[in-house]
Design a protein that fits this description.
Blueprint: H1 13-22, H2 25-36, E1 39-40, H3 41-48, H4 52-64, E2 68-73, E3 76-81, H5 84-93
Antiparallel strand pairs: 1-3, 2-3
Helix pairs in contact: 2-5, 3-4
């Protein structure tokens, strides 16, 4: 077994920020959905059955933190995940064999 090593000089600010942002159930659901396909706001709030304003606030935070980006297609904006770290974290959480993710309760 390897000895435990703590690196006091390593900066984990970006990783901690991603974990904080992903720590909200609605944002976690949004990212999990956007991993499978890019969606517009209307589809997201319809699928999650949440008010449009609520979804927009969460999308704005995810966008400001560099986790998602929007791509305009006419009047619609389609969001997709751009942070590979966030993608891997969420995929790990929901992979049964992967990282000890939870099974359907």
């Amino acid at each position: 077994m390897k000895p435990v090593v703590f690196d006091k000089d390593q900066n984990y600010d970006r990783e901690a920020e991603i974990l904080k942002v992903l720590g909200h159930p609605i944002r976690l659901k949004i990212i999990a959905g956007l991993i499978s396909e890019a969606c517009n706001v209307k589809k997201i709030w319809e699928c999650l059955q949440l008010p449009q304003a609520t979804v927009s606030q969460h999308l704005a935070l995810l966008k400001n933190k560099g986790i998602i980006e929007g791509q305009r297609d006419g009047v619609e904006v389609y969001y997709h995940v751009v942070s590979e770290q966030a993608r891997q974290i969420v995929q790990c959480l929901f992979t049964i064999e992967g990282c000890g993710g939870r099974k359907n309760d």
